[in-house]
């Protein structure tokens, strides 16, 4: 037995007897107390040492040694443990120090962040207060939308249950019919991309939520189709299959029809769209008596009538003595004339024969023709007269010439000529067919107001822009080198959004306007779904350079595209402020691009201030292109993407010069060509305008200089300005008398001093000694030298450099212009004294007085009530305000002055005509004060206008309805909706009784009532009235169209008829096809069928029965039979066309897809759904190949196919198609797009059919939310389009969007 220390040595390995792991023994300090028995036995064995004590030596030493060893070991253990603790504490301390440092750093960073956030908060608060001020105008609309949405959500839950119950009832009825063996289908059902839906305009939809019970039920064979919401790339076509300009023209869109006609018919005479009625008179000596009586007695009445209707009138006559000297001028005047009158009796001169050949034989369709034949009692005609009449009669195949056969006195003959001309001007030229036109200004203004509703604007501003565009397109200036610019324009427009405006820069005369007009022309042909809004700025200080009028015109054009121009403010500041909002709202409703082009934007008055919207982000489908001169471009705009026009290359210079020389039958020598080439090498001598002017001066100076002399003189001019000044001197030297030189100088100075130019008739009035042949020759030569042009009936400068050259050459730098302004002031004051207030007086006189700084006379002219009325009713509200501000009058002072003037004028009114004018003036004053923001002062004049009309006219007169309409508008402004509703209904009743139920005035009252109901949250009543109004607008647009719409189409049709009288040919058959299309556009289906049938027969003879052109004719004829409900014939023709195109065209050709679509649509109408399925599947395949699987067109094809499957009860096949279409629409158009809503609605119907009622309700609710969120043109808020991500429409690929297959 022993202790553990005695049994185990240090370092010895021991084992655990219980299976534990092996371990190593170690010394353990243990106190040892041996037992006595053990000690005694051990001492007993050894010898006893004498003198030794066990107690002192063994026991004591062993105890102290053991104790010492124990204490030492405990100390070591304690020391080691404490050292370990100290080490651990040090580590913790170091760790805490590091953590402390980190926290201190974080604290400092947080303090800095806090300070930064605090500063940002202060800045944000300041920005918030500023934003709250800007957002004040939106608060009312926001609250209104919230209320409407709350009401909508509360009512739609109940409505959906009612719809579901009604659906079950209809299904029960359907089952009863099916048990009786009756097959049901909807003949009016149409594909989503057909032109069969009720559309408000090209590009808009009246209301796409027109389905029946929860959409349209698949079980009834009329499942809800995705209707045509926009005029997009795949919805642009009518049923007629047309290649070229008419491929995308709807019969409801006359503006597009006329625009397309003008684009592709440059031979349509200028007289059809000019603002001047030019009467070309051809007379011999023996009919001079009738001619003199007509000019002296009747032409003045015709002039008054035309000026009252907003046009100029001009008699053009070359006497026999001077006719030979003006051959070129006579030909040009005949070409520009609106109507030609031939007066014959017994003699015929060579000049008469030449003029008759030009007017009556070569171009009989270019203008109206009147033949006055003075016969004797025996009715015998001389031989030359008979021959001429036979030639004229042979050319008049359509019997269009109006013949006046007269044998009475000369005065009676002149009366007959006047009566016939008045009828022609009213009915054929100005479009007032069958109407008794009053020449008073009020009548004209009322008519214009009737077209535009409550928005007042000037049709002449639009006509001026149209003429500017077409003149630029028809320019003979070279296009060499433009292709690279056109390609770069296309690339820059196709850049991914958001994109800033594109800057087209270049020096003066570098061809910017020509480039933009050519680009617009090409883009309109290639991308008909793109909406183009363009503006060409004219000479400085003219109306075309006023920023408010420019923005207002662009806004009105934008609103007209969507058949609504209500809600547009007249306040100039609001017009500028609201344009970006209108652009954002309406761009959200337009699928495709909206491109705004402003030429010479740097010439706009205060451009940087009033064009701030250009700096803001544009909607994703909006592009802006502006042109500027390099020298005058604002610095802030230079950061935009820029396309700079380079000078012409030597090859292009030679081409321009050679073209002009060949036109004048002139040939330059090689030395002369080398001189020109060496000269035109600097930047100032090789721009387009300089080279064109140089070439024309060389070819036109032969009358006063030789070719070498003119070339030498021109080469001394090293810039366009000096060349223009030389051309003016050259023109002066070409005249033989000082009188002619003086007239030219005075006329150019008068044009310079005017506001918008002067008319030819005004020039003749200002210079009584000037005869028209000389004026015509003068204008012809000035136009050839690029100095002046005729635009909107006014003589204007072609280029800014010409305007500047006249200022330097004739006006001493402008110091003498005041005298010419005084001359114009005197002329227009004379017209005022004769009680002739035309639009020209209102445009020019106040502006001239303002330029002369004569505030007293300016105020007097403004207080002429008819001047102010003319300005206001033509939409020049901002101009009128600017004049009053210049005079120094505020709003209340203006109102007081006008009231005093009206009171004075009222004392002089006694006749019925005078009282009618007085009522019009009171109405104009009331509207003017309302637009000024003085509604309380506007009540009195409007009520007075109503009283006068009810008393002087009749309580049921249409004018009374206008007064009621204006008063109702005031009550709406005051939120007295009950009174307003009563007045609107009264005005509606009067208009319906006076004009019938389908007049534009009725549509205006319906729109106003709809807006009123919308303000009162009566949405169903408002929608019903709005639909009726849109239908009336569409019908009146088809009936009236553009002012010259019917005339243009009629003339074009007659021209095409002339072309079809020749031998059979491919071109002739194509012309016949186009002629059929034109008659189709005029809704003349009988005539269309005749010409389309002739086209088909000729193509079969010339090209063979299997040619693709025959398929086009078959397709068009099938479309006509479809409209006439002759479905069997249409089906046969579609199938023949499809067979031809399958053989002749590639499997993915657009024309093949077009025929597939319409044949499938016809099968569906006839209930042949099984035959329609493969066609829809093939159409889907073609679209996927053409556009890719994620294009909206593919989604439309998916929806069409899904609808067919639902009608065939194949719901399982339809569901994935709908879901895929929904995904494509959401990805490409955004989650809030109306087409997404339609697809959701279809899915809701399908889910209901499958019995999943909860999902059906959920999908339908989301569809209704999308419908509710659709932007309203009146008060809705459009989703933001400033970003190309999220729920916005993103332009992918080249812009404009590619055209889908027909």
UniProtKB/TrEMBL annotation:
Region (Disordered): 1-20, 1274-1302
Pfam families: NPHP3 (PF25022), NPHP3_hel (PF24884), NPHP3_N (PF24883), TPR_12 (PF13424), TPR_7 (PF13176), TPR_NPHP3 (PF24885)
Any one GO CC term of the record: ciliary base
Start and end residues of each Nephrocystin-3 TPR-repeats region domain: 821-1059
Subcellular compartments: Cell projection, Cilium
Domain Nephrocystin 3-like N-terminal span(s) in chain numbering: 498-624
Domain Nephrocystin 3 helical: 651-810
Origin: domain of life: Eukaryota
Nephrocystin-3 alpha-beta domain location: 272-431
Coiled coil ranges: 82-127, 153-180
TPR repeat copies, ranges: 961-994, 1111-1144, 1153-1186, 1195-1228, 1237-1270
GO BP term, example: kidney development
Keywords (A to Z) from UniProt: Cell projection, Cilium, Coiled coil, Repeat, TPR repeat, Wnt signaling pathway
Name by which UniProt lists this protein: Nephrocystin-3
Natural source organism: Menidia menidia (Atlantic silverside)
Lineage of producing organism: Eukaryota, Metazoa, Chordata, Craniata, Vertebrata
């Amino acid at each position: 037995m022993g202790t553990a220390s005695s049994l185990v040595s240090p370092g010895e390995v021991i084992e655990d007897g219980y299976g534990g792991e092996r371990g190593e023994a170690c010394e353990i300090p243990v106190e040892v107390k041996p037992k006595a028995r053990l000690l005694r036995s051990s001492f007993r064995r050894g010898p006893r040492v004498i003198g030794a004590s066990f107690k002192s030596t063994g026991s004591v030493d062993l105890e102290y040694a053991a104790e010492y060893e124990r204490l030492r070991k405990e100390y070591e253990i304690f020391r080691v443990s404490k050292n370990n603790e100290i080490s651990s504490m040090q580590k913790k301390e170091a760790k805490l120090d590091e953590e402390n440092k980190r926290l201190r750093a974080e604290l400092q960073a947080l303090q800095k962040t806090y300070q930064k956030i605090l500063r940002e908060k202060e800045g944000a608060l300041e920005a918030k207060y500023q934003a709250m001020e800007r957002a004040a105008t939106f608060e009312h609309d926001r609250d209104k939308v919230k209320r409407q949405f709350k009401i909508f959500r509360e009512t739609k839950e109940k409505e959906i249950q009612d719809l579901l119950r009604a659906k079950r009832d209809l299904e029960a009825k359907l089952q009863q019919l099916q048990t009786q063996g009756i097959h049901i289908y909807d003949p009016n059902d149409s594909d989503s991309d057909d032109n069969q839906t009720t559309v408000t305009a090209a590009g808009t939809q009246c209301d796409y939520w027109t389905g029946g019970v929860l959409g349209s039920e698949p079980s009834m064979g009329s499942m809800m189709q995705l209707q045509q919401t926009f005029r997009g790339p795949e919805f642009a076509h009518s049923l007629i299959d047309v290649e070229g300009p008419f491929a995308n023209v709807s019969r409801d869109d006359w503006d597009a029809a006329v625009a397309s006609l003008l684009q592709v018919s440059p031979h349509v005479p200028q007289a059809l769209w000019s603002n001047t009625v030019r009467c070309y008179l051809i007379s011999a000596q023996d009919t001079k008596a009738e001619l003199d009586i007509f000019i002296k007695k009747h032409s003045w009445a015709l002039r008054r009538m035309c000026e009252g209707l907003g046009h100029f009138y001009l008699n053009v006559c070359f006497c026999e003595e001077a006719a030979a000297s003006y051959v070129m001028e006579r030909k040009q005047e005949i070409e520009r004339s609106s109507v030609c009158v031939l007066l014959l009796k017994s003699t015929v001169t060579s000049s008469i024969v030449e003029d008759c050949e030009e007017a009556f034989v070569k171009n009989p369709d270019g203008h109206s023709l009147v033949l006055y034949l003075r016969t004797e009692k025996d009715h015998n005609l001389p031989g030359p007269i008979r021959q001429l009449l036979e030639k004229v009669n042979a050319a008049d195949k359509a019997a269009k010439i109006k013949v006046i056969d007269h044998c009475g006195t000369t005065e009676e003959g002149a009366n007959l000529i006047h009566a016939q001309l008045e009828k022609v001007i009213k009915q054929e030229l100005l479009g007032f067919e069958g109407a008794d036109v009053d020449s008073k200004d009020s009548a004209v203004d009322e008519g214009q107001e009737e077209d535009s509703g409550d928005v007042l604007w000037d049709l002449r501003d639009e006509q001026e822009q149209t003429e500017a565009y077409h003149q630029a397109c028809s320019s003979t200036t070279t296009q060499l080198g433009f292709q690279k610019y056109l390609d770069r324009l296309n690339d820059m427009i196709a850049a991914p959004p958001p994109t800033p405006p594109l800057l087209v820069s270049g020096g003066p005369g570098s061809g910017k306007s020509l480039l933009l007009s050519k680009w617009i022309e090409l883009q309109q042909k290639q991308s008909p779904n793109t909406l183009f809004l363009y503006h060409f700025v004219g000479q400085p200080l003219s109306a075309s350079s006023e920023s408010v009028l420019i923005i207002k015109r662009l806004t009105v054009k934008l609103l007209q595209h969507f058949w609504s121009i209500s809600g547009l403010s007249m306040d100039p500041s609001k017009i500028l402020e609201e344009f970006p909002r209108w652009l954002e709202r309406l761009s959200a409703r337009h699928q495709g691009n909206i491109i705004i082009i402003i030429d010479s934007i740097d010439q706009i008055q205060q451009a940087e201030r009033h064009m701030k919207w250009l700096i803001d982000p544009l909607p994703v489908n909006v592009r802006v292109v502006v042109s500027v001169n390099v020298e005058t471009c604002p610095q802030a705009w230079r950061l935009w993407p820029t396309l700079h026009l380079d000078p012409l290359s030597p090859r292009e210079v030679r081409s321009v010069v050679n073209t002009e020389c060949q036109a004048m039958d002139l040939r330059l020598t090689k030395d002369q060509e080398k001189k020109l080439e060496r000269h035109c090498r600097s930047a100032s001598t090789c721009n387009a305008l300089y080279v064109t002017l140089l070439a024309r001066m060389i070819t036109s100076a032969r009358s006063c200089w030789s070719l070498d002399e003119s070339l030498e003189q021109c080469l001394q001019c090293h810039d366009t300005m000096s060349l223009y000044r030389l051309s003016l001197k050259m023109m002066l030297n070409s005249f033989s008398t000082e009188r002619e030189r003086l007239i030219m100088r005075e006329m150019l100075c008068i044009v310079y001093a005017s506001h918008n130019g002067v008319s030819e008739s005004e020039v003749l009035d200002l210079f009584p000694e000037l005869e028209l042949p000389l004026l015509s020759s003068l204008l012809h030569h000035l136009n050839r030298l690029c100095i002046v042009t005729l635009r909107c009936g006014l003589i204007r400068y072609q280029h800014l450099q010409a305007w500047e050259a006249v200022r330097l050459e004739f006006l001493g730098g402008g110091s003498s212009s005041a005298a010419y302004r005084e001359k114009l002031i005197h002329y227009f004051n004379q017209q005022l004294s004769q009680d002739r207030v035309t639009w020209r007086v209102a445009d020019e006189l106040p502006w001239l007085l303002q330029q002369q700084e004569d505030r007293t006379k300016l105020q007097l002219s403004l207080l002429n009530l008819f001047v102010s009325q003319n300005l206001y009713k033509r939409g020049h509200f901002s101009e009128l305000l600017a004049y009053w501000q210049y005079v120094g009058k505020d709003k209340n002072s203006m109102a007081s002055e006008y009231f005093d003037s009206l009171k004075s004028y009222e004392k002089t009114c006694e006749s019925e005509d005078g009282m009618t004018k007085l009522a019009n003036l009171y109405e104009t004053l009331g509207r003017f004060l309302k637009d000024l923001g003085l509604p309380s002062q506007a009540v009195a004049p409007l009520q007075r206008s109503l009283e006068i009309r009810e008393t002087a006219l009749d309580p049921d007169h249409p004018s009374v309805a206008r007064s009621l309409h204006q008063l109702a508008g005031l009550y709406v402004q005051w939120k007295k909706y009950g009174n307003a509703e009563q007045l609107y209904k009264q005005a509606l009743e009067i208009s319906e009784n006076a004009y019938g139920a389908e007049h534009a005035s009725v549509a205006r009252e319906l729109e106003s009532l709809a807006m009123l109901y919308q303000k009162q949250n009566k949405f169903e009543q408002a929608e019903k009235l709005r639909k009726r109004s849109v239908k009336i607008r569409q019908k009146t647009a088809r009936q009236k169209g553009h002012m010259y719409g019917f005339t243009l189409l009629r003339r074009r049709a007659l021209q095409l008829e002339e072309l079809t009288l020749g031998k059979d040919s491919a071109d002739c058959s194509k012309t016949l096809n186009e002629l059929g299309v034109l008659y189709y556009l005029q809704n003349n289906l009988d005539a269309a069928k005749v010409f389309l049938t002739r086209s088909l027969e000729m193509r079969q003879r010339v090209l063979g029965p299997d040619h693709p052109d025959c398929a086009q004719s078959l397709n068009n004829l099938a479309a006509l039979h479809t409209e006439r409900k002759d479905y069997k014939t249409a089906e046969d023709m579609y199938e023949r066309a499809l067979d031809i195109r399958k053989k002749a065209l590639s499997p993915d050709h657009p024309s093949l897809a077009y025929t597939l679509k319409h044949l499938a649509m016809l099968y569906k109408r006839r209930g042949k759904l099984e035959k329609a399925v493969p066609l829809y599947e093939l159409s889907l395949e073609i679209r996927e190949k053409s556009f890719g699987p994620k294009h909206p067109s593919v989604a439309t094809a998916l929806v069409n196919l899904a609808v067919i499957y639902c009608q065939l009860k194949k719901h399982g096949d339809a569901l994935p198609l709908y879901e895929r279409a929904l995904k494509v629409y959401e990805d490409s158009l955004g989650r809030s797009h109306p087409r997404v809503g339609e697809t959701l609605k279809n899915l809701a119907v399908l889910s209901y059919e499958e019995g999943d009622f909860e999902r059906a309700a959920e999908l339908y609710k989301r569809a209704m939310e999308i419908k509710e969120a659709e932007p309203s043109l009146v008060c809705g808020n459009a989703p933001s389009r400033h970003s190309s991500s999220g729920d916005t429409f993103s332009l992918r690929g080249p812009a404009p969007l590619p055209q889908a297959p027909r």
